[in-house]
Amino acid sequence: MRTVSTPSPALILPPRSSSAVLNGSSTSSSTFGTETIAMVHTPPTSLTHPQRGLRQPRDQQGAPIDILPDHAFLQIFTHLPTNQLCRCARVCRRWYNLAWDPRLWRTIRLTGDVLHVERALRVLTRRLCQDTPNVCLTLEAVVVSGCRRLTDRGLYTVAQCCPELRRLEVAGCYNVSNEAVFEVVSRCPNLEHLDVSGCSKVTCISLTRDVSVKLSPLHGQQISIRYLDMTDCFALEDEGLHTIAAHCTQLTHLYLRRCVRLTDEGLRFLVIYCPSVRELSVSDCRFISDFGLREIAKLEGRLRYLSVAHCGRITDVGVRYVAKYCIRLRYLNARGCEGLTDHGIEHLAKNCLKLKSLDIGKCPLVSDAGLEQLALNSFNLKRLSLKSCESITGRGLQVVAANCFDLQLLNVQDCDVSLEALRFVKRHCKRCVIEHTNPAFF
Predict the structure, then answer these.
(1) Confidence band for 45, pLDDT divided at 50, 70 and 90
(2) pTM, whole model, 2 decimals?
(3) Of 77, 245, 327, 356, which sees the most CB atoms within 10 A?
């Protein structure tokens, strides 16, 4: 009988072990130190059901789990990660056929430093391409976050075999470069979610190898990415963001945390080409100032989420721009913006009436007067962080508690608030979780 080989990628075995026994059958795995590479196994030859007319001894009868119908097995298998699903394919022929059902292979999820991720991707895509040679039409998501051994070669495999890819996460894979990202976005036209956070070599995302070439919205060739996370892409500069914005005009979620080389000029390009941005983070981008917030304010009512934490050049002026035009803002993180005062909080409270989450920790100039304005206008507030706000006292907290009944989380760590004020908050906001540093309050 001719059998089809089954990949069993990167089973994590002890470094000194050369074999493992699974359900009575020995399976081999080549290891080099702590490295475990993907192996290719033939499908099991055992049967899950006895032949008709023959009664087997009790010790040879099938396990009780064998009475489950196929649809029940498939439902169970949907909850297994990729490596466990491959192991299930080696139990018996029935499990082999079920484990390789195309409906279970919409996502490949591989993690870990020990994993030889490129070999695993190669054998998996080869197996999934058997019914449709050279392409896998069912695979929609590849998650290999934290696989530091991943290089451009691994992403080339994904780009060539997975034209229907919609989601790619390679967070922490610092060996990935612009060339590999170019291959993916060029060959996967439906890609909507891209996470390259921690990939310090990625400085641009475009449909042209020459990063200096910009595409206009009328060019006809645009990248369909809507969600882009470039956190900790330290080498990203304004020119790179200009290219990204010009090619990814459909962006709605963009995270640029700790992209320390960006300036206000980069944000100007972003707003010009990507007017649909709803969530934006430029936390720890130390060169972003009030001029950058003035550009962000041009997003107007579309902006829902904004994080400018630890942007030390931001003051009340920039917050006033955002408050005036982005009236549908739901979330603002301004932690560590030491230039923010009660006047900025007042503008925010009076204009952004739908505000639900606010972080103004480590803003020493915000006092009880700002909290009073916040309490009298932001009735929808659910999360409030005042950590390390030196000017906050129990009086401001009591005003907040008396007006914001839906408050669910309050952070007053390292604040000079009395025990009575904390108890007052607990009485009026019964569902509120209070994070504090007062040892007398339980």
Answers:
(1) low
(2) 0.84
(3) 245
